[in-house]
Amino acid sequence: MPEVIFPGPEGRLEGRFHPGLRPRAPVAMILHPHPNANGTMNNKIVQLLYQTFVRRGFATLRFNFRGVGKSQGIFDKGIGELSDAASALDWVQSIHPEAETTWVAGFGFGAWIGMQLLMRRPEIKGFISIAPPANMFDFSFLAPCPSSGIIIQGEVDEVVTQGAVQKLVDKLRTQRHITIHHDTIPGANHHFANELDLLMKSVDDYLDMRLAKDLKR
Fold it and tell me: What is the reported pTM?
């Protein structure tokens, strides 16, 4: 899990990167929660997502948005952070130019950035959005959503409302050619404080299903 420093739009960005185990290994990028709410790449959920993709042989990157940790720049209300994510993906792809597919996963604010990124990058074929803040940020850019994925929320999330997430899921499920899974973790708050095992079981079950389908193609 080596530390990496790579160029971003406003200076260097700090990350942790695990190379893929084979030449055409798939790529995964993990995006952290809101910087103004102490979100960093060392968030527990971000680390668990990172570890699960590493175990599956992905070339996996988690990094700090601008102004967080050793990353240069200042918070830019999501606009600059989306550019950071695009630069981070460019950097991974420069190391794994023949990646067979790309995934993006994010928690909270990171889920919002990740879903914007998949609209811009057609190589992203799967997403994991944990507690996407649909009651706080505009998700109308998903028109249409180009990739299948899973949205996961805690049953007693005190930050992101269930109604807003359900509305987002319902909207995405009207679109053709993609499939949106939606899991609600019983008893879980916004940070899944006592339900991390259940959260990661949801993630792993979904990845098992999606990756098995990819192998059959």
Answer: 0.97
